[in-house]
Design goal:
The protein has a 7-stranded parallel β-sheet with strand order 3-2-1-4-5-6-10, sandwiched between helices. A 3-stranded mixed β-sheet has the order 7-9-11. It is 41% helix and 18% strand. The mean pLDDT is 96. α5 links the parallel β5 and β6. α1 packs across α7, α4 packs parallel to α5 and α6 packs across α10. By secondary structure, it is of the alpha/beta class. The protein is built from 10 helices and 12 strands. The chain has 2 domains: 194 residues, 3-Layer(aba) Sandwich (Rossmann fold), CATH 3.40.50.720; 95 residues, UDP-galactose 4-epimerase, domain 1. The protein is globular, with a radius of gyration of 19 Å. The protein binds nicotinamide-adenine-dinucleotide. Nicotinamide-adenine-dinucleotide binds next to α1, α4, β5 and β7.
């Protein structure tokens, strides 16, 4: 199958590209390399260096590659940036996404797979784990732009017959995550700082919990969505809440880190306890997470060790 992955030079998108190529598909990547990197792009994939906010370029790339499926990962993906500049967030995540959808209709693409968020949609959930029917009440422009785009997908399906599957991700971690990022990427930040023996600060008391999923499992969900899940919205998650203090201890063990954590102020607008029920994905996509947290953290620490020793070489 011919598949175009937008954002395929980024952290998650590049793993999705690798999984599609390993499964024998022909893959193109559309990315402006704003946070993605050329070295993340699989050698077997053709890179179209295109900004999704440029309608003409998006259309030309989709018209020339002629994909059967478009997997849409390109996004402004950071909550703090969306708070600082909600207009830019909406420009990339809504207007850019619409340029992709319009070109898909014009070029007779069969289906779009969309990477949405579970973590930024529900606010503080009433029930943990929350399922996909939990009331939505995003706390950030980022959560709101992702939700708006989910509604556009439904509309494009009803009006133009463009099929879609929405995957609402939990907190994803693993190799190629940007460990220089200041915000959000808790595993990448803890692992890289601990490997170098640097102090680690936990925001708040550390008893806040998150649903952590290894990026390899996310890639498998995107593989399943090629053939199943039309018209559906699915949590791609572990279903298990893990506290930040627990993550600290587990990564400290793997990196032989001996320092105690420092505790800073809690971040405004962060949810306290969240996990996402993944039973719908198991039933309808035939997808389940395979990589346990300890194993996923070990793989990730090994990767960052390699990266850091290359940096110092
Ligand atoms: N990382 C997570 O835990 C998480 C959780 C929920 C949802 N998501 C979603 O998954 C997707 C991938 O996230 P990620 O963590 O890999 O982030 P990322 O920043 O590594 O990937 C985003 C990619 O999109 C590209 N991009 C950004 N703006 C673009 C533009 N205007 N035109 C073309 N390309 C553009 C970037 O260069 C990058 O390669 C995003 O849609 C994000 O919202 C991520």
């Amino acid at each position: 199958m011919k598949i175009l992955v937008t954002g395929g030079a980024g952290f998650i998108g590049s793993h999705v590209v690798d999984a599609y190529i390993a499964a024998g598909h022909e893959v193109g990547v559309m990315d402006n390399l704003s946070t993605g990197r050329e070295e993340n792009v699989n050698q077997a994939a053709k890179l179209h260096r295109v900004d999704v906010t440029n309608r003409a370029q998006v259309h030309a790339a989709i018209a020339s590659f002629k994909p059967e499926v478009v997997n849409h990962h390109a996004a402004q993906s950071e909550v703090p940036k969306s708070v600082a500049d909600p207009g830019h967030d909406a420009l990339v995540n809504v207007v850019g996404g619409l340029n992709v959808l319009r070109a898909c209709v014009d070029e007779a693409v069969r289906k779009v797979i969309f990477s949405s968020t579970g973590g930024a949609l529900y606010g503080e959930p009433d029930i943990v784990p929350a399922d996909e029917d939990h009331p939505v009440r995003p706390l950030s422009p980022y959560g709101t732009s992702k939700l708006a785009f989910e509604h556009y997908l439904g509309m494009f399906d009803r009006t133009f017959g463009l099929r879609y599957t929405t995957l609402r991700y939990a907190n994803i971690y693993g190799p190629r995550q940007d460990f220089f990022a200041e915000e959000g990427r808790v595993v990448a930040i803890f692992a890289s700082r601990m490997i170098e023996g640097k102090p680690v600060t936990i925001d708040g008391d550390g008893n806040q919990s998150r649903d952590m999923l290894h990026v390899g499992d996310v890639a498998m969900a995107n593989l399943a969505a090629l053939e199943t899940g039309d018209g559906g919205t699915f949590h791609i998650s572990s279903g298990i809440p893990v506290t930040i203090n627990d993550l600290f201890r587990k990564i400290a063990l793997l990196t032989e880190y001996k320092l105690e954590p420092m505790f800073g102020p809690a971040r405004k607008g962060d949810v306290y306890r969240i996990a996402l029920d993944n039973r719908r994905a198991a039933e309808q996509l035939g997808w389940q997470p395979r990589i346990q947290l300890e194993e996923g953290l070990r793989l990730t620490v090994d990767y960052f060790r390699g990266q850091i020793s290359r940096l110092h070489a």
